[in-house]
Specification:
It is a single chain. With 757 residues, the chain is α/β, with parallel strands linked by helices. The protein is built from 30 helices and 10 strands. Strands 3-2-1-4-5-10-9-6-7-8 form a 10-stranded mixed beta sheet, with helices on both faces. The longest helix is centred in the first third of the chain and has 36 residues, at 233-268. The protein is elongated, with a radius of gyration of 31 Å.
Length: 757
């Protein structure tokens, strides 16, 4: 059988690199016995090259990349390289404690970064959504394997324990190690199978998250016990209450503090790596706090990751940079070192081999059985429970981290560590095919299908993907109306809003900011009302974060300065909206010139001139089937949750459809009716009633103005194109509606600029 040269290249390069490293390290090692920087660099290079190479191979055959990184350590360690060529192995990985301390320091920091990343991938909203079922599954799924692991620890031979007199602590640690799952591996396979939004997929991932969280808390407490050497009730109480206090403070005061620090770094520091620096400092600080209260630093790093992951302004670019650094450097180094520390040659002993097989069997039966029973108690069907149990049996990176901690604490012996690493590798490799097979057999129910369709629409939508709002206002009533609109859009999901004061009268701005009807107060009031209107009663409005900024620069310069910080929508509320020539006022023209993203221009009329923060009684939105009209409809639906009457949706032709307007009622209206039905179906998903009307044979601006009068609407939301030119221009229809409407107007544009036709 012919073997392709391309497939052999990575292996050949790894061998060449290894030989070159042995030769150079041997020469460098002759200088002195002190730690060598060259050897450290050679170790890191080898672990990255071989680990990432094997990780690529594993991914191509459907296995997690972490398996390849672990195998790299096994191949470079005493299990293979050290067994085949001991002298060369001692040159590349010298046994001196000084040299080991160098790369161990990198690995220990890598543990914290891995836990930070695990925390960032923890979706607490998902846990809350399926919390009851996931909690039941997690408790049973942890209790059964924990009991099995604890019983195994009590019957282990003394030769496998570094401190037989502290068997209780070793048993507790072993029980924890056997009960925890790898949320990262589970999430990767569930996402790969496109099951992340399926009911059972959400329960599997949420259960793994709870498993992980409980496991790290238990590990932290066990570390506290191990550091004291005895099972003292006072020390246990101190560790438990210290951990509880840390968690309470972290998820109350800490949550807000982390968000504000990340926002401050993003808004005030010009360095592109400023936010990453703040995240690393937060991780180090929280890890240091957990160390000071007597529990392991991994808990602090994990909780820091959870809080960082919840920050609403953590941009995709920053997330990818941090993730890339951890995945490309620290993961292969840490897991490679874990493989190096494992010596599988000890399994040549028949007794140890049988004990390892028993460990794997007990771990698998305990976790699989516990998760299966937990699934049944949590209300899952038998096929769903089987899929859950298949996923929860993967130990992966989490197990290796725990085993490494146990080895460093002196709870595990070197032989026991090797057995646990073997168990982690085998259970992780068995999980993906089992879970894929189990998930493929699960049917899709009617309710679940409807929910998935709704979520798919939301993912493609505009409003659902807004994460941060910029509100540019002066001191006028129109500013308060724009702030009210922004608060309604932000309230349901607790989005952060930056209020930028660009008015000329600075003293009046300061007065208004202290007033109960200031733009900031209007934002918060509307946000709370919007949150109460949410179907799930989320209460997001209480968490809306509002920051005010008064700039000394011109309005345009201020917008440009703010825009670089990343905003999804600019809402403008100025005293004068329309200009003398039928376009926009010069000040609106200037301040929007520096913002390339979506815009919302508010014009308060009718009831909102006197009561700018009043909820719209009736909202009208014209649609035409275009993307921009669809965007306007989404915004109207979001605002209609507080309306007293059904949302009025009217189909109008566009200025591009002049030749295709309906001249006779007998002509087919199938397309127009389909568009109206689609908008009505979207609104129905949010329990919003809709009244529809067709005005396809009338000029669009005339149709909209007629419908405003006929429906007695007090707010019209119009999706518009932004037309290329020297000034802000939304076209003749928008200008006509803005100038002649008796109802308040909200013009919503996308970020694209359409060439003038």
């Amino acid at each position: 059988m012919l073997i392709r040269w391309g497939r052999l290249q990575p292996t050949i390069w790894a061998v060449v690199m290894l030989l070159a490293t042995v030769t150079a390290a041997d020469a460098a090692g002759d200088e002195a016995a002190k730690p060598s920087e060259f050897i450290l660099l050679a170790q890191i290079a080898l672990l990255i090259a071989v680990g990432r190479g094997l990780g690529e191979v594993m991914q191509r055959i459907g296995q997690p990349s972490v398996i390849g990184e672990l195998l790299a350590g096994l191949l470079l360690g005493p299990s293979l390289f050290g067994w085949l060529w001991p002298s060369a192995h001692s040159v590349v990985f010298p046994p001196s404690s000084e040299q080991k301390a160098l790369i161990d320091g990198i690995a220990q920091f890598g543990i914290l970064l891995l836990l930070l990343l695990t925390g960032m991938e923890t979706d607490l909203k998902l846990v809350r959504k399926v919390g009851r079922a996931a909690a039941t599954i997690s408790v049973v799924g942890i209790a059964v394997p924990f009991a099995c692991g604890f019983a195994l620890g009590e019957f282990l031979p003394n030769s496998l324990l570094p401190h037989p007199e502290a068997r209780l602590i070793a048993s507790l640690f072993l029980g924890t190690a056997l009960s925890i799952s790898s949320v990262k591996i589970v999430a990767v396979v569930v996402r790969e199978m496109n099951f992340m939004r399926r009911n059972v997929g959400q329960i599997i991932v949420a259960s793994a998250i709870i498993d992980d969280t409980i496991g790290w808390i238990i590990i932290a407490v066990i570390f506290s016990l191990a550091s004291r050497g005895t099972l003292d009730v006072a020390s246990v109480a101190q560790a438990l209450f210290g951990t509880l206090a840390f968690l309470v403070v972290s998820f109350t005061i800490g949550r807000r503090l982390v968000f504000r620090l990340i926002r401050w770094a993003n808004d005030n520091l010009v360095s592109p790596a400023a936010v990453i620096t703040v995240i690393l400092l937060l991780m180090s600080a929280m890890a240091g706090i957990t160390h000071l209260i007597g529990v392991h630093t991994v808990l602090g790093a994990f909780i820091a990751g959870v809080l960082v992951g919840e920050s609403p302004i953590l941009t995709r670019q920053i997330d990818e940079r941090l993730r890339g650094l951890i995945s490309s450097l620290f993961m292969p180094v840490f897991f490679g070192l874990a493989g190096l520390a494992a010596d599988l040659t000890v399994l040549r002993d028949t007794q140890l081999l049988l004990l390892t097989a028993a460990l794997i069997l007990i771990a698998s039966i305990g976790k699989f059985g516990g998760a299966f029973v937990g699934g049944a108690l949590g209300g899952l069907t038998r096929p769903e429970s089987y899929a859950l149990a298949s996923g929860m049996n993967a130990r992966g990176s989490t197990e290796v981290i725990i085993a490494t901690i146990g080895l460093s604490m002196g709870v595990l012996s070197q032989t026991m560590f090797s057995m646990i690493v073997t168990m982690a590798i085998l259970t992780t490799m068995a999980m993906p095919p089992m879970l894929r097979s189990a998930l493929a057999r699960l049917p899709l129910g009617k309710d679940e299908k409807e929910r998935l369709e709704r979520e798919e629409v939301e993912q493609r939508g505009f409003v659902a993907n807004i994460e941060r709002l910029l509100l540019a206002v002066d001191e006028s009533n129109n500013a308060k109306f724009a702030a009210h609109v922004a608060g309604l859009l932000a309230g349901g999901r607790g989005l952060p809003i930056t209020v930028l004061h660009v008015g000329a009268n600075a003293k009046l701005q300061e007065k208004n900011r202290a007033d109960e009807e200031s733009p900031e107060a209007a934002v918060i009031k509307a946000a709370k009302a919007s949150a109460r209107a949410e179907a799930d009663g989320g209460g997001g409005g209480d968490n809306v974060d509002v920051i005010s900024r008064a700039r000394e620069e011109t309005a345009a310069e201020a917008i440009v300065e703010e825009a670089r910080k990343g905003f999804d929508l600019l809402v403008v509320g100025m005293d004068k909206v329309a200009g003398p020539d039928g376009g926009f006022d010069r000040r609106i023209d200037e301040l929007t010139s520096g913002f390339d993203g979506p815009l919302a221009i508010a014009a308060a009329k009718g009831v909102h001139e006197k009561e700018p923060t009043a909820n719209a009684r009736k909202i009208l939105v014209p649609v035409s089937g275009s993307n921009v009209s669809r965007r306007g409809a989404e915004v109207a639906i979001a605002l209609a949750r507080l309306s007293a009457e059904p949302l009025q949706v009217v189909y109008v032709s566009t200025t591009r459809d002049k030749g295709a307007r309906r001249s006779s009622p007998s002509m087919s209206l199938a397309r127009e009716e389909a568009i109206l039905k689609d908008i009505a179906a979207t609104a129905a998903r949010y329990d919003i009633n809709v009244a529809t009307r067709l005005r396809a044979s009338t000029a669009p601006e005339v149709a909209i103005l007629q419908e405003i009068t006929a429906s007695r609407a007090d707010l019209v939301v119009v999706g518009v194109d932004r037309i290329q030119g020297d000034s802000l221009n939304f076209g003749s229809v928008a200008a006509a509606v803005l100038g002649k409407s008796t109802a308040s107007v909200l013009l919503v544009s996308d970020g694209d600029v359409r060439p003038k036709t």
